[in-house]
Amino acid sequence: MIGALTLAAVIAVAPVSVNTSTVGYEVSQYKGKWYSPKWEDERKCIMKRESHYNYRAANKTSSARGAYQFLDSQWRKGLVWMMLDEGGNVKEIKSLRDKPINKWSRYYQDRAFFTAWRNGAGKHHWYHGGIKCY
Fold first, then answer.
1. What pTM value is reported for the model?
2. Dihedral over Cα of 48, 49, 52, 54: its sign
3. What is the enclosing helix (H) or strand (E) of 44?
4. Dihedral of the CA atoms 81, 86, 91, 96 (nearest 10)?
5. Distances (CA, A) of 132 to 42, 49, 68, 115
6. Cα–Cα dist 105/19, whole Å
7. CA angle in degrees (0–180, nearest 5) for 62-68-69
8. What is the mean pLDDT of the chain?
């Protein structure tokens, strides 16, 4: 009887569903102009170092946001502009200007990463003296 009550109590306080779609490493959802599978290891390392694979991450001491910890105050409008240059759903992309980067979908955060990464030309944006990803 006590075991059944304990189990019932655990079930009662356990969350009904856990949204894990914003945390964890997955191969990039973006496969456009700037994507190349050869950069997945670097992307994975950067994500782990910057946010522990958390697309909703928000730095407590800066405006760094999202899985790649873009400085929201400096990057958001520029990333949108760069993504518009590639094309796609213009209305949807423009709407990102009004959303913090950590509120963007996985697809748009992955797209922003590869757009800024530019086949390695933008890797300096993630330079880190400790954990080397490239």
1. 0.82
2. negative
3. helix 40-51
4. -50
5. 9, 9, 15, 21
6. 13
7. 0
8. 87
The SS3 of residue 54 is: strand
Phi first, then psi, for residue 23 (nearest 5°) are: -130, 135
SS (H, E, C) 54-78: ECCCECCCCCEECCCCEEHHHHHHH
Residue 1 has pLDDT above 60, yes or no: no
* Predicted local distance difference test score (pLDDT) of residue 32: 96
Distance CA 22, CA 51 (A): 11
Q: Give tens-digit pLDDT for 59-81.
A: 999 999 999 999 998 999 999 99
Furthest CA-CA distance within the chain: 65
CA distance 32 to 46: 20
pLDDT digits (tens, 9 = 90+) for 69-120: 999 989 999 999 999 999 999 999 999 999 999 999 999 999 999 999 999 9
